[in-house]
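Data card: per-record layout.
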Amino acid sequence: MGDPSTAVSRPGPDEPGGDEARTPPLRPGRYDPADYAGCVVRSAEDTGVAPLLLMTVLYNEAYKPHHPLLERLWHWWKPGASFGVANMHRATFERIRRRYGLPRRWQDLRDDPACAVHAAALYLKDLDRTLPERHHRRCTRDELLAMGYNAGERNMRAFARGVPPGPMARSYLRRFRAHRSRAAAALTKACGAWDEDGGPRGGAGR
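The structure for this 206-residue chain is written out next.
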């Protein structure tokens, strides 16, 4: 018997995450962020973030199953848990929803992967706006944005000034670097040649 999954249609033009995004499988270990590479590229193009940054963040956030049923059970046990394939907390989503007039609710993230990917892209866009152009050379801009996604804007700006990341942020950064080539391969498979600088091979990277 296969893993239960359904196609979730994008609700309207306000959420350009993709035309359809299948629900992640119920069986642990079967979820693959590469399934949402198309959503990643469309949301990245709409928001102006680097597709490779967004794709790698999805890989970093793939440490737990993302099936809607499992997320409902997890939320029952831990009300403050994050939702969706991009693991977004409610407070973060509400800021994004108000700023961009999103028609969906936070709870929809667990049922609509395209919506979750698009919300993550909008959050990375906001983080990019607040990150100074000049920053400490310890990390690349995408690495700082990824740590900001995980640790918040204030910590991201501190890391940019040269404040050493704590253990959790360092762990997130290690995983982000390790997943970079895997994310690039997923984008290449879905959309053609992609390099690890963040853009189409032969184009300008980040």
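Known properties of this structure: The mean pLDDT is 82. The two ends are 43 Å apart (CA to CA).

See the next section for split statistics.
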